[in-house]
Amino acid sequence: MNLQGVWCIARPSTSDQALTDNINYACGIVNCSLIQPGGSCFYPTSLMNHASVVMNLYYQKAGRHYWNCDFKNSGLTVVTDPSIVLYSLLYPFFRLRPGSRLFVVTWDFLMLEGEGSGFFF
């Protein structure tokens, strides 16, 4: 599989405490300014989205091995870019600042690594 298009995100069933733990762990290793106020991934402001952003940063930095996205079984890899998936359809009136990139986890339709078809949440 081509790992260029693989991202790590938080599982939708992950507890708030585990998401917080993942953020704290990843931010000890990667630069988490993206999820701080004024950062390009600050919005939407939810633990799920913030954790997914920093988990993916960690995954990319650590070498993109499946174990780099485990986070005590609270992460999963996807092959559909979660920063753009269906967001324009779900939130057509949302405007981004020029040059910013929005990382949004949508659970409508994602491709799981190693699967041949879509996985619905």
UniProtKB/TrEMBL annotation:
What organism is recorded for this protein?
Answer: Olea europaea subsp. europaea
Domain X8, which positions? 6-87
> Where would one find the signal peptide in this protein?
none
Q: Does this UniProt record's set of keywords contain Glycosyltransferase? A: no
Q: Which SMART domains match?
A: X8
Alphabetic keyword roster: Signal
Q: Which GO terms describe its cellular component?
A: plasmodesma
Its name, as the record gives it, is: X8 domain-containing protein
